[in-house]
Amino acid sequence: MRCLLDAFIGRVIGAFSAPRVLGLCAVSWMPSSVASLAHFSAPRVLGLCALNKSFKRRPSNRGGNQNLSRPPELGNLGGIVVRERTFHRNFEVAFASAFSNVRNAPLENANLREINLSEANLSRANLSRADLSEANLSRANLSRADLSDANLSPASLSDANLSRANLSRAFLSRANLSDANLSRANLSDANLSRADLSRANLSRANLSRADLSGANLGGANLSGANFRNSEIDDKVQNLTPKQVKSACYWQKAKFDLDFEKELKKEPDQQVDCHKWQSPTN
């Protein structure tokens, strides 16, 4: 399709707070007027039509269509809202569909600050060292994703699927991980200070050397979770027996011997563990 007129592009770019645009051009789902762009809650848009073009199917040598084997480079997408209810409807559908499934996407080092990717499929995506601070990833599928060294403070990850995800050295201070699935996740050396892990599934997760100072573990499933080789020290980690005993199945977790002795001294708590009452626990 033909590119937009320079004057029109200028007006569009002027609305962006971070105009690192990869190539805006006319596409079938572009809003009918520039005024529609004012509905964006944080319009830092980088080549929306370029993304649309990249996500379109292309002819294969065998006939028919096939998807691109590699998703487009997304670059700096800070502040984009994927499912903004006030979008022009056609624009919303096309934009949301482009981002709702970015499985296996290479997004390492990407600036995704404040992005809304709730319910997105980011399974196996490479988000290592990405800036996802204040991002909305609630109910997103991040299973087996690489989030090592990523900044997720204070991101919303409530109800997200992070099973088997690599979160080693991730910065998750004050992150909302309530009801998240972190089973078998690698959280070694992660900063989880003041994070909300209430009712989260931490079964068989690796939490060695993680900073859990002030973290809320209320009702979390700790069955098989590994806390060994952690520096259980008030000045370093601040993991307390009281925190642990506010969780479920802490008896099945793995702790250092010294910490196990402290656990025996701590009074038991009445904890609601109905969520985890299944044959697997």
From TrEMBL:
InterPro entries: 5peptide_repeat (IPR001646)
Annotated protein name in UniProt: Putative low-complexity protein
SUPFAM superfamilies: Pentapeptide repeat-like
A Pfam family that the UniProt record links to this protein: Pentapeptide
Top-rank lineage group of the source organism: Bacteria
UniProt keywords, alphabetically: Plasmid, Repeat
